């Protein structure tokens, strides 16, 4: 009985830590490549597939990254696939580059995530 109780306590503490680490937002400085509102009027003329390392959960990690990338100036749409650890981004290449997007992801949440260009489409 003691082992079960000890295991449950350890599990609950670990689960709580995981949830808190995925949902806490640190004070990040504004990036010149991002705006406060989604870019619905951007004419996408390019797309890229980014590889993203460090995501631990779909709602606390993947969704905020998706929102962060989608808010960048020049990005018309972004879909982060948690299972494949990728982001598919449509963008205007006159406003932003895939390398700039990897820097946005890398700077997000104090550098917890690492992005690289998997494929420029």
Report on the structure:
The chain has about 120 residues and is of the alpha+beta class. About 35% of the residues lie in helices and about 25% in strands. It has helices spanning about 1-25, 60-70, 100-105, and strands at about 45-55, 75-80, 85-90, 115-120. Strands 2-3-1-4 form a 4-stranded antiparallel β-sheet. The longest helix is centred in the first third of the chain and has 22 residues, at about 1-25. The termini are far apart. The relative contact order is 0.21. Mean pLDDT is about 80; it is low at about 15-20, about 25-30 and about 30-40.
Task: Show the helix and strand layout.
Elements: H1 2-23, E1 46-53, H2 58-70, E2 75-81, E3 86-91, H3 98-107, E4 114-120
Antiparallel strand pairs: 1-3, 1-4, 2-3
Concise account of the structure shown:
The chain has 121 residues and is an alpha+beta fold. It has three helices and four strands, in the order αβαββαβ.
